[in-house]
């Protein structure tokens, strides 16, 4: 399979100096997967500069919060006077001293760039595809900022400079972004199923020959996604069910008259919904199409089944929608890629038509899976 092209926003790296959603070990795991033909980590110089500029401020806030956190020292009167109470008092004093030493040690390591996270990031960056400063791209970022085009907040050029670098340097095709600050993601989606900002998705699609953007909020999520794609059976092992066609006889004789049979429907292309909508089809065809998605055993089959089902979308019933919603919840081969554009669009269409009519518990579950409850954006430091 082709390499996975990855960009990680500065806020994700900075969070390792505080209370990250990712464990520190994920940096080692990502480093091992960063190689030609596997994961290609794109690292603009602007990201490295932002990390250097904001690292110490992030550390200071984290250490201050840790220092302020107090151990419970007040012991109720009925617990006092016992050996256990004495041991507790000693343990609290010991913990306070250990905390003081821990903070001092961390500050010393931080000032020397010798924190464990410093070393892990340095080793990861060595394997990344790095891009130097580019004045021409910076000028493009200025124009983008003055026009008010995303990504980034008003009068902020950093994310726009990074985006122009990615547009110029990343090969045609898909790009996976790990970010938490909302500059690349739609404000209408939650962390469980983050969709890219429509403006950026359309721009990437136009500039990168149909490429798609996918947004993750943690490195662990994208690494798990990559491993799942690696564990998928080869595409050649899957022979997708074709839509029923006319018999393949070259010609048919009827009362001595030569008849040319109708041209059979073309096989579905991977991930491309057929353009026509079948108005009236036998129920068994719809059942077969639903079953193909419900029992999907691979990402490739899921994409094909979704494309197939788009043909019958207008013929689906409430019961069909409930089966398909339940399948997205139960079947990891659907749930893992429910944020992929074709799968997501298909389920959103089912939501708009059936969410008010289906079982409330099921509706709540599918709403959570698709991330359809807007969250309050959290401003990140820097």
UniProtKB/TrEMBL annotation:
Pfam families: PIN_12. Residues 247-268 are annotated as: Disordered. Residues 6-184 form the DUF4935 domain. InterPro entries: DUF4935. This is DUF4935 domain-containing protein. It comes from Halopseudomonas salina. The lineage of its organism: Bacteria, Pseudomonadati, Pseudomonadota, Gammaproteobacteria, Pseudomonadales.
């Amino acid at each position: 399979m082709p390499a996975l092209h990855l960009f990680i926003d500065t806020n994700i790296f900075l969070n390792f100096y505080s209370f990250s959603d990712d464990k520190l070990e994920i940096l080692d795991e990502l480093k091992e997967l960063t190689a030609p033909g596997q994961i290609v980590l794109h690292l603009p110089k602007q990201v490295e500069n932002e990390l250097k500029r904001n690292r110490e401020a992030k550390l200071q806030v984290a250490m201050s919060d840790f220092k302020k956190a107090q151990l419970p020292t007040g012991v109720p009167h009925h617990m006092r006077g016992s050996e256990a109470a004495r041991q507790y008092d000693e343990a609290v004093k010991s913990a306070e001293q250990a905390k003081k030493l821990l903070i001092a040690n961390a500050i010393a390591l931080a000032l020397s760039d010798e924190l464990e996270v410093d070393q892990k990031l340095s080793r990861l960056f060595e394997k990344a595809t790095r891009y130097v400063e580019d004045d021409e791209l910076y000028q493009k970022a200025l124009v983008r900022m003055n026009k008010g085009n995303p990504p980034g907040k008003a009068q902020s050029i950093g994310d726009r400079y990074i985006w122009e670098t990615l547009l110029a340097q990343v090969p045609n095709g898909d790009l996976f972004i790990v970010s938490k600050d909302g500059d690349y993601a739609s404000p209408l989606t939650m962390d469980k199923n983050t969709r890219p900002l429509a403006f950026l998705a359309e721009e990437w699609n136009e500039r990168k020959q149909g490429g798609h953007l996918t947004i993750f909020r943690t490195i662990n999520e994208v690494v798990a996604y990559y491993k799942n794609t690696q564990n998928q059976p080869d595409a050649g092992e899957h022979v997708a069910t074709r839509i029923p066609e006319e018999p393949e006889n070259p010609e048919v004789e009827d009362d001595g008259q030569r008849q040319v049979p109708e041209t059979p429907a073309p096989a579905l292309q991977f991930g491309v919904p057929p353009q026509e909508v079948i108005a009236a089809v036998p129920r068994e065809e719809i059942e077969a199409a639903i079953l193909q998605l419900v029992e999907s055993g691979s990402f490739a089959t899921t994409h094909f089944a979704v494309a197939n089902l788009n043909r019958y979308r207008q013929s689906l019933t409430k019961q069909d929608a409930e089966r398909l919603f339940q399948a997205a919840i139960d079947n990891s081969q659907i749930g893992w890629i429910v944020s992929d554009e074709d799968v997501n669009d298909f389920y959103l269409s089912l939501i708009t038509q059936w969410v008010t009519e289906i079982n409330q518990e099921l509706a709540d579950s599918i709403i959570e899976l698709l991330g359809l409850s807007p969250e309050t954006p959290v401003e990140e430091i820097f």
